[in-house]
Amino acid sequence: MMPRGLSGRMQRWLWLARFKARLRRQLLAITAVLLRINAVHGLLALLPTILLHLPRGWRGVEYRRSRQNLELFDFSPGHCRVLACQYSAIQFQRGIYQHLYQSHRPAHLRAWIRSIPWCDPAGHWQRGARRQTIIALPHCGEYWMAVACVVERRAAPTRFIVPIWNFGDPFTHGSLKNLEGLGHVIEVLDSNDPKTALAIARGVKRGDQVIIFCDLPVSLDGVRFGEPMAGRFFGRDAQFVKGPLFLASKLCCDLLLVGHRVRLGQRGELQVIDRILHGPFEQMLAQWIEALEGFILEAPQNWLYLPRMEAFHHRQWSSGEKRQVGQSAVARRG
Hints:
Elements: H1 8-34, H2 41-52, H3 63-70, H4 77-100, H5 106-114, E1 118-119, H6 124-127, E2 133-137, H7 143-153, E3 159-164, H8 170-177, E4 185-190, H9 196-206, E5 209-213, E6 219-220, E7 223-224, E8 228-233, E9 236-241, H10 243-250, E10 254-261, E11 269-276, H11 281-298, H12 319-333
Parallel strand pairs: 1-11, 2-5, 2-10, 3-4, 3-5
Antiparallel strand pairs: 6-7, 8-9, 10-11
C-alpha cells in the first residue's frame, strides 16, 4: 500500500523500486537453486567476461561509479573496466551464496566454512590467542561468511558479541543467530544504539569475543553510523566511524583485522590481515589505515564501498560540534 499524499509520479517510482527489489530477490533465489548443481558454478567465473561484452548499462547498477573510483588508484582504463565488472559479479555471487549457506543447518554450514582456506602467514591468529582482542572485519568479499568463519574457528563454547548497523533486517539478524548451531552464543546488537558501547565494554570484561565491522563511513544515504574520526585514506583526508578503534584503545584490546576474498564460482578465502597491538589511539589508527589500504589495494573489486568512496571523504560534524552550532544559533536569536 502506497503512503498517502504522494504524487502520482512518486507513487509510480516507489512501485517500480519495490518491484525491482522483489524481482532481484526472486532472481537470486532461483539462481541459488540452480547453483546447487556444481557444474553451474563455472558460469560465475565467466560472469565478468560476459559483462564486459554487454552494454555499460547492463553491467550492474554500481558499475559506472566503481570504474570511476578505480581510476583514482592509477589503474589503466582497461584494467578499471575489468575490475568494475568483477565488482558487479562479486556482489551478484554474494547475494546468491547467502541463500546457499543454509545457516539453519549447522552440519551443512560447518562443512561450507571448513572448505574455505585460511591465509595467516604471519601467525597473527595464534600469536595473540592469550591477548584481549577485538576482531575487526572490513566489508570485503562475503563479509557475513567471514563472521561465520571466525565463530566456527573457536573450539570452546564462546559468547560472541556482533554489533551490526542493519539490525532491523530479519535475514541478516536470523543468519547470525543461526550461528549458535555451531555451539556458541551469539548476541547481535544494534550498532546505532547508544547502549551498545557499554554492552561491548561489559562483554570484554566477561571474556566475550567481540566481532565488529570497522570500515563504515560516518554516514551513507542519510543514515549516520557513528561519531567521526579523521585520518588519511588513499592520500586524501577522510573520516571513519570512530567506535571500533576507540573501543579497542580504551578497553586495552588488540585489534585483529580479518577479511574475506571472493573467488568467483568458488568458496573464496579468509585472510588474517594484521594484528594491531593495543596502544594510544593515534598509533593504532595509523597502523589500521595502512593495513586496510593494503588489503583493499590488492583486490579493490572485493570492497563493498568501492563505488561509494566519496562517503569517506565528506566532512561530517561530530555530536559536540552540532551542539555548539545549535547553541550559537540560539544565542544569536536571543
